[in-house]
Structures are given as C-alpha cells and as structure tokens.
Amino acid sequence: MEKDRILQTAIRVNVTREQVGERCDSAFAQVHKCIRTAAAESSEIKKKQRLVVILQSFFRGKGKYVDGCKREQLQTIVRLAFGINNGQSSYLRQEIRAYTFQELYWYYCYIERMAKGDAYLIDYLQELETEKRALLAAQKEKKEQEKRRELEEKQEEIEKMQGIERWTYDINERKLDIPYYQELDDETKCNAEKRIAVARLLKEFWIKEKKWAGDKVFKKQAVRIAKVQEILKEGI
C-alpha cells in the first residue's frame, strides 16, 4: 500500500480536534502505546489481533479514566480511527483491514496529525525551535567552557615559565617590549645576564615589527635602539 493511498484514507475519515477534544495529546499517546505493544507479536495477523484486543479494553470498565486518560476520549479516537465501537468488535474498519501493521501505524499517525491540526503543528514547530535554541546554548556553553579551560591551562603554563622562556613570551606574545626596555637599567629587576638577553630579544622583536630601521623608527624609538645597541656592544 502506497503512503499517498494511506494518507487519502486518513483524509476521508476527516477527524477534527473538536471530535477528539482539545486536550487529546495524552489519549493519542496512550493509543501509540497500544500500537507499540501489539507490534511485539510475531506475525501480521497476531499483531492486528493483539491491537484490536487492547483497543477493545477501552470500552470495558466503568471508570472515567484509563491510565490517566479520559475513557470517553480514548473511545472516540478508537471509534473514529479504527472503526471499533465497543468491547465486542473484533475487526478493524473494512477500508484499513488490508493494511500491513506498519501501514496501519502510518495511517494512524496521519489521523493524529489531522486531529490535532494547525495548533499541533505550531506547537510542534515551537518545540523544535526551543530544542534547537537549547542545543545551541549548550554547544555555546561547552565551547566557552573549553575556551576557559584552554586559557586556564595556558595561563598555568605561562606561570611555570622562567628565565628567557618567560621573557621571550612576554615580549613576542604579550608585546611587553617597552616595560622590559624600561627595566634594563634597573639592577633590582635586571642583572647583567638578563640585561643582555632581554636586549637581544628586544632587537629581534623590533626587527620583526619593523621598528629597528625604517619609517616606524621615531625619535623615542631611536633612543631605545641606541640603548640596546650599547648593551649588545654593537655601537650606535
């Protein structure tokens, strides 16, 4: 049986929300549960027989509710969708009897969609949008957490750096060339060995940044270059 033929059968039934009640979600869910239970049987015949038996049970008993669902609402859905009118009806409606169990499930899904109508579709789309937003928010939070973790790990690595490794990082990555230059004549912060090493790093950095020669070398920078050259004994 082609899906479009199944859809046409469902359309002919023309179930509306008014027929099954405004709050029909739980009742439809209960019938879905019945279909899943019957699907566990071994053959097509047994599946359908089992489904009919379960659906008949909605017509038995005097309680107003069945597993939290209105019995009357369940009976209406079963009557409209499957043609079962009471607890003794042992057949599905004639026009759907020939359906395979899988096709019967498709048919029922069409019935449910039409019964819930546009309001259901709008709610469904809104639910999808909410789920999408929640997923994007979770992904964003995960990325931010990973970024924070990477920054923390990097900071820990930086804190562990000592000597020339730390000076190289500060000057080349953090662009702290001027603060390091200002320490060159401060003996409390810069001993002779560090003074030469930092001066060499400053020269390499300024060459890379095109601040060792050319248009970017202004008066103040020229003074700094001269100072570094003096330390490195390169002459002015």
Q: How would you describe what is shown here?
A:
With 236 residues, this protein is mostly helical. It has ten helices and two strands; from the N terminus they run ααααββαααααα. The chain has helices at residues 3-13, 17-20, 25-38, 44-56, 71-82, 101-160, 163-172, 177-182, 192-208, 219-231, and strands at residues 65-66, 69-70. It has a two-stranded antiparallel sheet. β1 and β2 form a beta hairpin. α1 packs across α6 (101-160) and α3 packs antiparallel against α4. The longest helix is centred in the middle third of the chain and has 60 residues, at 101-160. The mean pLDDT is 86.
Element layout with pairings:
Layout: H1 3-13, H2 17-20, H3 25-38, H4 44-56, E1 65-66, E2 69-70, H5 71-82, H6 101-160, H7 163-172, H8 177-182, H9 192-208, H10 219-231
Antiparallel strand pairs: 1-2
Helix pairs in contact: 1-6, 3-4, 3-5, 7-9, 9-10
In quaternary terms, these chains amount to single chain
Looking at the structure, what is the overall shape?
Answer: rod-shaped
Radius of gyration: 39 Å
If you average the pLDDT, what whole number results?
86
Number of helices: 10
- Number of DSSP strand runs: 2
Q: In this structure, how is the largest beta sheet organized?
A: 2 strands, antiparallel
Strand order of the largest sheet: 1-2
Order of helices and strands: HHHHEEHHHHHH
Percent strand equals: under 5%
Helix content: 55-70%
Indicate the structural class: mainly alpha
Poorly predicted ranges: none
N- to C-terminal distance: 94 Å
What's the gist of this structure?
With 236 residues, the chain is an all-alpha fold.
